[in-house]
């Protein structure tokens, strides 16, 4: 089709007999519908505000500080988040919990169906023991099969009394190159309902009362490329987690 008009001026006729609409109008209508469904899905996940105005489910949607993602991108060439959403992702490439609502906004789907053969990834699963155990198993299985450089930097709560299964798996894995701790009360995440803040409002940060343990799982090729042989990189990561 030879178009001599601007794309937004091309008229398309609705099959149901409605007035013709421009492509821009059609896209806007479809976008608004998709956004509404997305908002309703995550509002259902978060639940209603309690007496303090907090939504309990939003805790599962908290995000690491943006400065940390910039450091991981610069230091480890991380370009993909394995647990994010259209509302809290830093990178354009990410996995999320709801492919049906999130896919149109760029989600690669569930992390557990995501099977990269190479690359460097940030992993911050929801703080439920079953999901964290599945996450550890999935990362280890991917590393077992990888023939190219593959790296995961994983952030989980340091639950050690008793030691949770995910941490036991990673600490026993030959792919774990290092792990270190961010102390409770000394690091923060961005709150999970950040997208509900007024435009231009500074993002709220939640100081985590418990410790976070950071695991770096890499095969040999990844270790050569993104290894954590220098203590200074651990300190930089801890510093970025500690920024309010």
Automatic annotation (TrEMBL):
<protein>
    <recommendedName>
        <fullName>PCIF1 WW domain-containing protein</fullName>
    </recommendedName>
</protein>
<dbReference type="GO" id="GO:0016422">
    <property type="term" value="F:mRNA (2'-O-methyladenosine-N6-)-methyltransferase activity"/>
</dbReference>
<feature type="domain" description="PCIF1 WW">
    <location>
        <begin position="24"/>
        <end position="190"/>
    </location>
</feature>
<dbReference type="InterPro" id="IPR039881">
    <property type="entry name" value="PCIF1-like"/>
</dbReference>
<dbReference type="Pfam" id="PF12237">
    <property type="entry name" value="PCIF1_WW"/>
</dbReference>
<dbReference type="GO" id="GO:0099122">
    <property type="term" value="F:RNA polymerase II C-terminal domain binding"/>
</dbReference>
<feature type="region of interest" description="Disordered">
    <location>
        <begin position="1"/>
        <end position="20"/>
    </location>
</feature>
<dbReference type="InterPro" id="IPR022035">
    <property type="entry name" value="PCIF1_WW"/>
</dbReference>
């Amino acid at each position: 089709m030879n178009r001599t008009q601007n794309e937004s001026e091309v008229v398309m006729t609705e099959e149901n007999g409605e007035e013709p609409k421009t492509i821009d109008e059609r896209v806007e209508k479809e976008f608004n519908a998709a956004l509404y469904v997305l908002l309703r899905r995550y509002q259902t996940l978060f639940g209603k505000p309690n007496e303090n105005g907090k939504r309990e489910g939003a805790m599962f949607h908290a995000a690491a500080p943006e400065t940390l993602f910039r450091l991981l991108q610069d230091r480890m060439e991380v370009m993909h988040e394995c647990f994010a959403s259209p509302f809290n992702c830093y990178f354009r490439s990410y996995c999320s919990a709801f492919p049906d609502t999130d896919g149109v906004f760029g989600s690669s789907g569930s992390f557990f169906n995501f099977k990269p053969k190479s690359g460097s990834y940030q992993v911050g699963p929801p703080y439920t023991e079953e999901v964290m155990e599945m996450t550890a198993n999935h990362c280890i299985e991917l590393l077992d099969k990888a023939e190219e450089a593959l790296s995961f930097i994983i952030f989980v709560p340091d639950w050690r009394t008793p030691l949770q299964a995910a941490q036991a798996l990673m600490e026993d894995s030959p792919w774990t190159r290092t792990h270190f701790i961010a102390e409770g009360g000394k690091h923060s995440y961005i709150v999970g309902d950040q997208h509900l803040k007024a435009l231009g409002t500074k993002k709220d940060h939640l100081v985590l009362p418990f410790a976070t343990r950071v695991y770096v799982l890499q095969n040999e090729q990844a270790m050569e490329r993104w290894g954590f042989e220098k203590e200074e990189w651990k300190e930089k990561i801890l510093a970025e987690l500690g920024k309010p």
